[in-house]
Write a structure and sequence with these properties.
Blueprint (H helix, E strand, L loop, with lengths): L3 H21 L8 E10 L5 H10 L2 E7 L3 E6 L5 H15 L5 E10 L1 E8 L2 E6 L5 H11 L2 E5 L6 E5 L7 H10 L3 E6 L2 E2 L35 H4 L10 E6 L39 E2 L15 H10 L16 E6 L7 H13 L4 E4 L12 H12 L3 E5 L19 E7 L15 E6 L14 E4 L26 E5 L2 H18 L5 H10 L6 H4 L20 H8 L12 E2 L21 E2 L5 E2 L8 E4 L28 E9 L5 E12 L11 H4 L12 E2 L1 E2 L7 E6 L15 E7 L12 E8 L15 H4 L6 E4 L1 E5 L5 E9 L6 E9 L7 E6 L7 E3 L4 E10 L6 E9 L6 E11 L5
Parallel strand pairs: 11-13, 11-14, 12-13, 14-15, 15-16, 16-17, 32-39
Antiparallel strand pairs: 1-3, 1-4, 2-3, 4-5, 5-10, 6-8, 6-9, 7-8, 18-19, 20-24, 21-22, 23-24, 24-29, 25-26, 25-28, 25-30, 27-29, 30-31, 33-37, 34-36, 34-38, 35-37, 38-39
Helix pairs in contact: 1-4, 7-10, 8-9, 10-13
Protein name: Subtilase family protein
InterPro entries: Peptidase_S8/S53_dom, Peptidase_S8/S53_dom_sf, Peptidase_S8_His-AS, Peptidase_S8_Ser-AS, Peptidase_S8_subtilisin-rel
Family: Belongs to the peptidase S8 family.
Length: 898
């Protein structure tokens, strides 16, 4: 088709190209490229020695430019750009097929000279969508550019290549950008990426499964606190002080001494109370038993050194182990003795508050859970917490809730910690109860049958008094290391508590203004829901209803990511989220190397549906009272009415688990026909968001915000409303309301709807990775700003059966072989029968690109008390490589439920 815009282009093009060739010939590559260097990325067989030999053959000097994969061939004499390009292309042609060189080109800078990027002779160009293939071909021919490939998703986006010795890829792509018919053009940058994880060089770090569980010692991969990922935001600050109250300490331990606290207000050895706190020369801490400034271990004291190492061992120093806050300051406070007075402990907690300590760990407590804490000591502890100290207490080593009745863990100002194993199970002999805030990785348990396989590796007091001595720990499953400064045999809630306290140190290092309440909330709100079959976490509050698993197992990465700076890939204190299933409370950072909301933390791991959002509900006429944050969970979710003229209402609940309020929040809700894998979003969806797509043939219909002409709801602010306050008086979740106009009933369609919600805040936008994708089933599990509800309510108040049609889809651009798998809630297995039409479960179905096929299931209810979900997942692959593309769920319930 011809149009005037294209006509003007072709009339002007010959003159434009001639002018460019006249002016560009003498123009050099922009200053952002490195002189006299060819960049080389090695292939699988590209060893340093092989690359060095190739460089020598061509008369170049071989050097590393960027860690992990980019090398430079430096010309020994000056070379112009064209010569470098010819050699780079020859290197790729000769050695790519052999696997020695993967890519070669010039070296450029991304923003500054600290960020090197490789520039092969390739660039992207996005042409106006009004241009056809012939138009684009003429432009490319005029510039001597060859098509490498055309995008299958983005209209008229091409990857192009040019020959060496021309104007240079940066100049050519810039000239493309100058064309009115080109939306953008830029080189095919090769940029350095790194796994979102910091791995210390400490020799025993490989044994520290509680930081990073790779399956060592027969453990379960990822049954850990993810501290190695959290460390990518920093190893902690020496300005953050963690006090450890315990038995005496190995003050000169090689892996602890570097972090030893130094009181800035005290002059060592002058015998004067310089800072006026009543203690003389308290330079590094205090011994509250001997009442002196030397909290060093005496006699057989070893516990304090091991506890301190779990939180504060100096990380990445090539020695031993790493604590969870490896660069925080360590204040040792000795309180050893079987008996100690309330007065002494009051003095200690007052001291901690007076010295502006940030965090305090207490891996000790009453032997008898029924013991109580005196009023004076309670007041002192709560006062320290009120002053800003986050106070951690070990919950107790016994399967008892007694410590939550009257002992230290029960106090309002205390964060109490219990234990999990390297198999992501609760330690049998570890505290339970409503006062426990979190489970943290510790040890396997004390008695068979064990729930884990190993203990914790940490610092040890050297010599005979240590755990690693001539009198080894009974029942330790792992042989002790030869270096007696360390032990493989520590554990209990004594280990779980300092691990968590160290993570609090990471949080305070990132945001020093956090209050103890905010620290507690971050730790609780980001916990992984391990062993749900035993913990039975509430769908409404996120907490274990059995009071055994608290809020789940510590996840340091998720907690620190919320408060880390945006510039460091953190969220800057804001994290709005909409849930994908009842176990999802926001931990969906799959883009950053972590798990997504489809992972069920059972052992072995299970897959969860990501399409049953509890944050989307529908109300058909006659309407119920509009839900609030307090009533949303009890609000009855209904099937939309298909009657002509009926306006259904749809509600989306939005939470924020960050300490800073989300601002300028947009909530968009759309529907499409009931099916497993959802249809793709239109190609301009993200460009138009929050407004509707401007392209025809959109399978998604946007709903209008109630009382507004907009196709999205605008919310000024979403304050903190994370799991810690869910369902409580302080729950500030925001509910948005939409009008849902369902189409007329069509017997040839599914006649029920999948609802997709997208939330976006000015200070917590949808992830950039999501905005490069168009398949909702790929976005939802990895981005907690996006969710969908894809299920049907089936009221089984009487015995009957009903047929439910739905679409099985291929939303992608290539032919696939897929199948449908059935999963029933266990209680339903004898209460319903599921019959298929148009397919068989687990039988391969071939679908062309974009194809959708109407199939169905007949649910036959044989027990009127039936209650649960029929899950149907659309999957692809075989064995362990099976991946879930999408799915739907049919809820079966008795009318008495309502």
């Amino acid at each position: 088709m011809f149009n005037f815009r294209k006509a003007s282009l072709w009339l002007a093009l010959p003159f434009a190209v001639a002018a460019w060739s006249a002016t560009v010939a003498a123009k050099s590559e922009p200053e952002s490229t490195m002189d006299n260097v060819i960049g080389v990325i090695p292939g699988a067989k590209g060893s340093d020695e092989a690359l060095r030999q190739i460089a020598q053959e061509y008369g170049f000097e071989f050097r590393a430019l960027v860690k992990d994969g980019l090398y430079g061939f430096h010309a020994k004499q000056g070379m112009d750009r064209a010569s470098l390009e010819y050699i780079a292309e020859e290197l790729k042609r000769k050695f790519a097929e052999r696997g020695v060189i993967r890519e070669s080109g010039l070296i450029g800078y991304d923003v500054d000279k600290e960020n090197l990027t490789l520039l092969p002779l390739e660039f992207f160009a996005k042409f106006d969508e009004t241009l056809d293939d012939n138009d684009i071909k003429q432009i490319n021919q005029a510039f001597g550019a060859q098509v490498i490939r055309k995008s299958t998703r983005v209209p008229n986006l091409y990857l192009l290549a040019i020959e060496p010795g021309q104007q240079g890829v940066a100049v050519i792509s810039a000239k493309y950008s100058d064309l009115a018919e080109v939306e953008f053009a830029h080189p095919n940058y090769w940029k350095h990426h790194t796994t979102f994880e910091t791995l210390p060089v400490d020799p025993f770090f490989v044994d520290q499964w509680h930081h990073r569980n790779t399956g060592q010692h027969a453990g379960l991969v990822d049954a850990d606190a993810d501290t190695s990922f959290a460390w990518d935001f920093g190893l902690g600050s020496s300005n953050v002080v963690i006090a450890v109250a315990d038995e005496g300490f190995d003050m000169t331990h090689e892996d602890l001494a570097a972090n030893l606290y130094i009181n800035p207000g005290e002059t060592a050895g002058n015998g004067i109370d310089d800072d006026g706190n009543g203690l003389i020369d308290d330079v590094n801490g205090w011994d509250f038993v001997s009442n002196d400034n030397n909290p060093a271990a005496i006699a057989a004291e070893r516990h304090g050194t091991a506890v301190s190492g779990v939180a504060l061992a100096r990380g990445n120093n090539g020695l031993g182990v790493s604590g969870s806050c490896p660069n925080c300051s360590w204040m040792p406070l000795r309180i050893a003795n079987p008996f100690i007075s309330d007065a002494t402990m009051v003095q200690m907690f007052d001291y901690v508050a007076d010295m502006d300590v940030d965090i305090m760990n207490n891996s000790w407590g009453h032997t008898n859970p029924a013991s109580s804490v005196s009023a004076a000591l309670t007041a002192s502890i709560n006062s320290a917490a009120t002053s800003g100290v986050s106070i951690f207490f070990a919950g107790g080593n016994g399967n008892s809730a007694g410590w939550c009745v009257a002992s230290f863990p029960s106090l309002a100002g205390v964060i109490a910690v219990s234990s999990s194993t390297n198999l992501d199970r609760k330690v049998t002999e570890a505290a339970v109860g409503n006062c426990i805030a979190i489970l943290s990785p510790s040890h396997r348990g004390y008695n068979a049958p064990f729930n884990g396989t190993t203990h914790v590796t940490t610092t040890d007091r050297s010599g005979a008094p240590g755990y690693n001595s001539t009198n080894p720990v009974a029942g330790c499953p792992q042989p002790e290391p030869g270096n007696t400064n360390y032990t493989h045999c520590f554990g209990g809630t004594s280990s779980a508590s300092p691990l968590t306290a160290g993570v609090a140190g990471l949080l305070k290092s990132l945001s020093n203004s956090l209050s103890p309440t905010q620290v507690r909330r971050l730790i609780q709100d980001t916990a992984d829901k391990i062993q749900h079959s035993a913990g039975n976490y509430s769908a409404n509050t996120a907490r274990s209803t059995t009071n055994t698993h608290a809020y789940g197992r510590l996840n340091a990465f998720e907690a620190t990511r919320i408060v880390a700076p945006v510039a460091d890939d953190g969220l800057g204190g804001v994290d709005i989220f909409v849930r994908d299933n009842t176990l999802d409370w926001g931990n969906t950072s799959g883009y950053l190397g972590q798990q997504n909301s489809k992972v069920g933390y059972e052992n072995p791991r299970i897959s969860l549906p990501h399409w049953v959002s509890p944050d989307i509900k529908v109300d058909a006429p006659p309407y119920q009272p509009a839900p609030t944050a307090a009533t949303f969970d009890a609000f009855v979710d209904e099937k939309p009415s298909l009657a002509p003229g009926d306006v259904n209402r749809a509600y989306v609940r939005v939470r924020n688990r960050g300490p800073i309020a989300a601002t300028d929040v947009q909530v968009k809700l759309m529907w499409t026909q009931f099916g497993t894998a959802l249809p793709a979003l239109n190609a301009d969806f993200w460009a138009q968001f929050p407004n509707n797509s401007a392209l025809p043939g959109n399978p998604w219909t946007a709903m209008n915000c109630a009382g507004s002409p907009n196709s999205y709801c605008q919310v000024a602010s979403v304050p903190y409303s994370g799991a810690s306050v869910a369902g409580a008086a302080g729950d500030a979740a925001v509910i948005t309301q939409f009008d849902f106009l369902a189409p007329a009933y069509d017997p040839g369609l599914a006649n029920h709807f999948c609802l997709l919600a997208v939330t976006n805040a000015s200070n917590d936008p949808v992830a950039a990775q999501s905005q490069a994708l168009f398949l909702a089933d790929s976005i939802t599990p990895n981005d907690n700003n996006v969710t969908h509800r894809n299920y049907h309510n089936l009221d089984t108040s009487v015995l009957f059966s009903e047929y439910y049609p739905f679409f099985i889809r291929n939303p992608g651009d290539r032919l696939i072989k897929t199948f449908l798998a059935l999963e029933l809630d266990p209680v339903l297995e004898k209460q319903v029968r599921v019959h298929t039409e148009g397919f068989k479960f687990n039988e391969q179905i071939e679908l062309k690109a974009g194809e959708e096929r109407l199939v169905g299931v007949k649910i036959e209810v044989v027990d009127k008390n039936a209650n649960g979900f029929v899950h149907i997942a659309q999957q692809q692959g075989e064995g362990r490589k099976v991946k879930t593309l999408g799915g739907l769920s049919i809820e079966v319930y008795n009318s008495n439920k309502k």
